[in-house]
TrEMBL record:
InterPro entries: Lysozyme-like_dom_sf, Ribosomal_uL11_CS. This is Glycoside hydrolase family protein. One of its GO terms (cellular component) is ribosome. GO terms for molecular function: hydrolase activity; structural constituent of ribosome. Keywords: Hydrolase, Membrane, Transmembrane, Transmembrane helix. One of its GO terms (biological process) is translation. The chain crosses the membrane at residues 20-38.
């Protein structure tokens, strides 16, 4: 029987680069876990409800400050888009959402009008559909959340207001200075300009019982906004 030598291969000691790399990987994993836990805690249903007995344009904005002409326009939009109590939590059709930590993205069947039979994700005071909310929140949301490369945007009342306010105030988004048009009394021109986005404003395809009253409503809430400054 031939005797053979059995040599065990000893493990090579870790190099400095390997040690540092391993430490970085563990640190990044730990950081990711901490961020994820924090994000999920922020996803708990929002209990900071806006509660108002007023409907639509009569309901005050949650956002504080800002130009009174733009604020009055925002309230006017809600007169035709969400003429209910507590408009920030309403879905198309009248159902309510409890969790305002993000856009609900719930597609509800349209029951009348030219789009009957389709579904819409319209939600909140300004009846944002999901794609419009994501696009405009990406540009105007003051406090975006998210994880690494994924972005999320709170749909709480304050942020619904702030996104719309910044959007309406951005002349590059509309090709016109809406505030100056309103100051010159051209509310009908502004409503027509916006009717492609909010189709209930009197020049779109989905007018409702409030559409013809919007210029008067605007003047009423404008006086309120000017007096409250």
């Amino acid at each position: 029987m031939t005797k053979t030598d059995s040599k065990k291969t000893l493990p090579k000691p870790d190099t400095l680069e390997q040690s540092v790399g391993s430490w970085l990987v563990r640190s990044l994993i730990l950081l990711a876990i901490v961020i994820f836990i924090g994000h999920m805690q922020g996803k708990q249903p929002s209990l900071r409800w806006f509660d108002s007995a007023e409907r639509g344009s009569d309901a005050p904005l949650v956002m504080q400050g800002g130009d009174p002409y733009i604020r009055a326009l925002m309230r006017t939009i809600s007169a035709s888009e969400s003429n209910v109590r507590n408009p920030y939590s309403v879905l198309y059709g009248g159902d309510r959402i409890q969790d305002l930590s993000t856009h609900p993205d719930r597609c509800i069947t349209i029951v009348n009008g030219p789009n009957m039979g389709n579904c819409t994700t319209a939600a909140g005071r300004y009846q944002f559909i999901t794609t419009t909310w994501q696009a405009q929140a990406k540009r105007y949301h003051p406090a975006p959340g998210g994880f690494l490369f994924w972005q999320d945007y709170s749909f709480e009342p304050q942020y619904q207001d702030e996104v719309v306010y910044r959007w309406l105030s951005d002349s590059s988004a509309w090709g016109a200075d809406i505030r100056q048009l309103l100051k010159r009394g051209q509310v009908n021109a502004v409503l027509k300009m916006l009717s492609g986005t909010w189709t209930s404003l009197g020049y779109g395809i989905e007018d409702n019982s409030m559409s013809d009253e919007l210029p008067k409503i605007y003047q009423k809430v404008l006086q309120q906004e000017l007096q409250s400054r």
